[in-house]
Structure formats: structure tokens, C-alpha cells
Amino acid sequence: MKTLAENRAFGGVQGVYSHAARTTGCDMTFGLFLPAEAEEGPVPVLWFLSGLTCTHENAMVKAGAQQWAAAEGIALVFPDTSPRGADVADDAAYDLGQGAGFYVNAAQAPWVPHFRMWDYVTTELPEALFKAFPLDEGRQAISGHSMGGHGALTIAMSIPGRFRSVSAFAPIAHPTASEWGRKQFAAYLGPDESAWAAHDATLLMRKRGFDGPVLVDQGSSDQFLDLLRPEALAEAMAARRQEGAFRMQRGYDHSYFFISTFMEEHVTFHSRALYD
Amino acid sequence: MKTLAENRAFGGVQGVYSHAARTTGCDMTFGLFLPAEAEEGPVPVLWFLSGLTCTHENAMVKAGAQQWAAAEGIALVFPDTSPRGADVADDAAYDLGQGAGFYVNAAQAPWVPHFRMWDYVTTELPEALFKAFPLDEGRQAISGHSMGGHGALTIAMSIPGRFRSVSAFAPIAHPTASEWGRKQFAAYLGPDESAWAAHDATLLMRKRGFDGPVLVDQGSSDQFLDLLRPEALAEAMAARRQEGAFRMQRGYDHSYFFISTFMEEHVTFHSRALYD
């Protein structure tokens, strides 16, 4: 584990670290905020998965989450969104390849072997984190934005018992029925659509739901609403009788201004579950 | 206007009044809570429409709304749910006739002429209230439970500009597709289903939505979930990009214990809109 930066922030430390990852076969960088309480012992942890084109850095510097996490004594993890490097496959489009890992394990060329973001985020990075930092593995929550909201929801529903709560800002809610999803799943997972269902939050909500509270915020002026398909997830949550809230925030768009506006409510939402 | 009772409550007055109503052709009773601020001048008003089998009294004594309305300086109106009296048609079933007006104007026998709850709640009672009490006609909001949630949502969407906000507890969300709705609409409105659409919150949400915030709470253990159809409304709200929140509250049922638990949040939700 290599320390790239550590800055005092809100009484704690905002760090940036990198490590050689076996799952993705490249060096991976992540951000980690530790609140002051981490000096005394393990603290609960909130994962934040970012969207298309983002690195570990965007949410870390623009989402405004540290102030609320510090107030609640919660750590924040900001993983990268894909493998990186000159020998890692890429695509000219912003929504495929580097910066667009979609939190899946690729099954076909040219994305094998590096594009294994599912395994990286659900297995390798947690192992590295809980070994190296004072984080409480029994108290985890997860959130994310756009592609990262998709990642947060699908991961939370697929690993029952790991996360106490899940939230999302403008998630890609029904990727098997959207060009934000169908294009990438066809590329990474292949043409067999039956393999896609495990990575669709709406389909997972219909099938099993989440054993804990769910909070979804969506801006009504989001420029990508037709790609996000929030109505499919809202219907599935209600039909599942899923504990939680789906909120349409009038006038907000897809940006970090939207995220930062509602970040306090998301952190306190997770805090209630983490300290329950 | 006849005063049936007035009790000091939370620094204001909880009154019960009756008046001879022309729309329903019978005496109608309602509850009105006036906060202390009403002694100084007109105050904003929150309507609360009740559900099947209720009179003006149920929510008035069991919903716990007065404490929060007093804190916000807001009046509360609790109308009855149907015409009443020995000469008013009725049915042996709890969900038709007296106590089950469904907030529509009946078009056929034996429900004509008394069953005109739409006109009573949207026209006659407001006229009587704004004439007799210090209420601010320009600052109105509306809420309700079950059949009353249906009434609140359909009235709010059908009279644009009158209400600044609307909320509902476990509303009958899609009555044209439920036996809580089809039975009553067939009886009151007649077999032409095209006349029913104007009284279906999901269909109105799909068609026009509401120009203001909407808050819907639904209990996940509600014994009437299959009749309420919340998933249809949740989908329609998200598809409409309707400002607001749909919340599934884990373990809550259809009772006033559910209502009173979340009443504070509904009153403060409306207060924000009323004082905006």
C-alpha cells in the first residue's frame, strides 16, 4: 500500500493510496477519509462509488461528504471506477473502457483480464482496507452516483448482510433497458442477456430487494433521465414493499451540485443504520 | 354554523361544527383546529381527509396532528367522509354508502342526490370555512389516509393552484384497478369507466401531476396493500418527474398508529410549502 497523499480534514485525515491489485492486474488508487474517532479504534465505513469518467478523486473533492462523515464518526472510501494504465484496454467513447468499469467482471476481449471491478470493489479492496486501516467490517454502508449508484444498489442487493443501508444519487436504475447499460453489458459481459440481470438494480429489486433501508434521490432536471430509468426502480421498490424512500428533487440535475446538496441527508441516513 | 364542541388544545382550539349543506342535502359535521396564531389573523390551513368508516372524528382524536400544527401555526380541517342521516342511502358493506363517500359526486341511484362529497369538500365546505374562520385561502395544503389519501391526491391534482403541497398516508393509489375503487365507482359513477379516470391518483399523476411537492408514506405491513396499489403511483410519480417522495415504512400497517408516527413529518413538510 503506497501513500500518495494525506491531508488533515475535518479533524480527521483524507488520504489517497494505491496498491497493486491482483483482480484488475494494475495499480489501483483510492481515497479514504478517516474521522478523528479512527485514532481510538475501528469506525464504521461508508463506500461511495462514482460515475462515468470519474476517478477516485471526483467525489472526494466535490461531494462534500467529509464534513458530515466527520460529524458522525464514519469513514469514507472512494474507489476508482475502472482499471487504468497504458496496457489496459480502452475505448474512444467516454462510457466504455477506462473510467467506465460499470462494477462488473468482464467476460470477453478486449476487456479481459483487467476489467474486474466487481471483484475489486467487493473482495480485494475490502480485504486491503480492513487489513490496513481501523475500519469496522461489521458496520458498512454503500452509496454512489449514476454508474456508481448502479454499483451501490447491485452490490448491496447481491451480498446480503454486508451492508446495513444503501443509497444512490441518480443511479443508472435499469441498465438492461437503457443505452447506459446495454452497450456496456454487451461489451463486457457478452451477448447473452441472461448474464446481465445480476447487474440491474430494478431486476434485483424485483427479485430479492435489500434487507435494510434504501434511499434514492433523483433530480427532476437531470439531463440523463431517459437513460437512468428511475421510474422502473421506483415501481420495483414499491412493489417489493422495500423499506426506504424514492425522492424526486425538483430542478436538480446530474452534477455534483445535486450530490453535495443532499449528501448530508445521505450520510445521516447511513449513520442511523450504522449505529442502530 | 352550529358549534358542537370547542376544546382548548395545544394553545389553540379544537372545534367541532355542523352546518346544513346544500351539496349533500343534509347536516354535515367537521372538525377544525385553530392554532393560537388564529387569534391575531388568518392562518394557513391543512385539510385532512379520512378513510373508509371514518367520521370527522377519527383523525381529530387519533392522528396526533394538533401538536405539530400548533407548533407551525397551521389550522387543521377534518371533514366527514360522506353524507349522513336516516334519509341518506346506505349499504350493508363497510366500503359503500355512509362512511364511504370516496370524494366523488354520485351520478346514479340510490346515491343521488346526497352523495356529492367532491362538491362538498372542494366547494361548499371551503366557502363556509373561509367565511366563518380566520383561515388564509391563499395558503392551503391537503393530506389524507387511505380513501382520504385518494381524495387528497385527486383533489390536489384536479384543482391546480389551490394547494401548495399534498401528502397521503397509505392512499388508495389506483382505484380503477382495485376492488377499492371499481366497486364504488361502478356504484356511484356508473358503468362508463371513462368517468372514473378523473378520480384515480395514478392516472392523474400520469396525465398531469401536481405543481408542488408530494409526500406519500406507505407501511410495508399494511394489510390492504394489494388493494392500495402503491407501486402504480410510485412508478407514475417517477415517470412524471414529480417533485416529492414515495416512502415505504418497514413494518407499519394501515392503522392510526402508522399515521401518528409520521404525522410530524407530514405537517412540517406542508409547513415548508405553506410558508415558502
TrEMBL record, chains A, B:
Gene Ontology molecular function, alphabetical: carboxylic ester hydrolase activity; S-formylglutathione hydrolase activity
Protein name as it appears in the record: S-formylglutathione hydrolase
GO cellular component: cytosol
Top-level lineage group: Bacteria
EC number: 3.1.2.12
Family membership: Belongs to the esterase D family.
Protein's organism: Falsirhodobacter algicola
Gene3D superfamilies per UniProt: alpha/beta hydrolase
GO biological process, any: formaldehyde catabolic process
SUPFAM superfamilies according to UniProt: alpha/beta-Hydrolases
Catalytic activity: S-formylglutathione + H2O = formate + glutathione + H(+)
Cited function: Serine hydrolase involved in the detoxification of formaldehyde.
Cross-referenced Pfam families: Esterase
